[in-house]
Amino acid sequence: MIAPALPASRTHSGTMTSADESITAWALAARDGDCRAVEQFVRAVHRDVQRYVAYLCGDPQTVDDLAQDTFLRALTSLHRFEGRSSARAWLLTIARRAVIDSYRYTATRPRLSDVPDWQLAIELTQPCNVPGFDDGIALLDLLDTLPPQCREAFVLTQLLGLPYAEAAEVSDCPIGTVRSRVARARAALLNLLAAADEPATAAA
Question: For the chain, which terminus, N or C, has the lower number of CB atoms within 10 Å?
Fold first, then answer.
């Protein structure tokens, strides 16, 4: 997996962070024919695309294919990117469409997965014995219980760090809807964490 060249944005304002500004500048330079900028752009957002696709599709077998499809679509339509929004938001919008198209294709041509438990498959592909490993797996389990739209809003804003305005653009819904979905996701996660702590408290 290619690590991002710059840290993900953590602001929720409507303005781009310095990281997003750099990513957008690389995308614009790549659009104008700068081959090195293409490499920098892909490297900077590759991990975000994979994480977003993984949370949307829930199938570790298709994550790499969907990420590759996302970048193929993006690079072939880069000439239409004008920089009105951040390049990261633009790319995640393309990733979302790639996942939706994949669902539609699968619905018309169903196939059997050779991995009966996709969550177990994700766990087995994660690095063990590192700080936060158990917490990361627990978060995956909790996020899986959320409604898809709330999960997507939470992932975009809280895990990938997109501003609410850009998350709304990616999700194709009003910004108020994104805020509401994130609030519901937070409340649901807090309730789940509280419920999980109750048996431990009772046992103590």
Answer: C
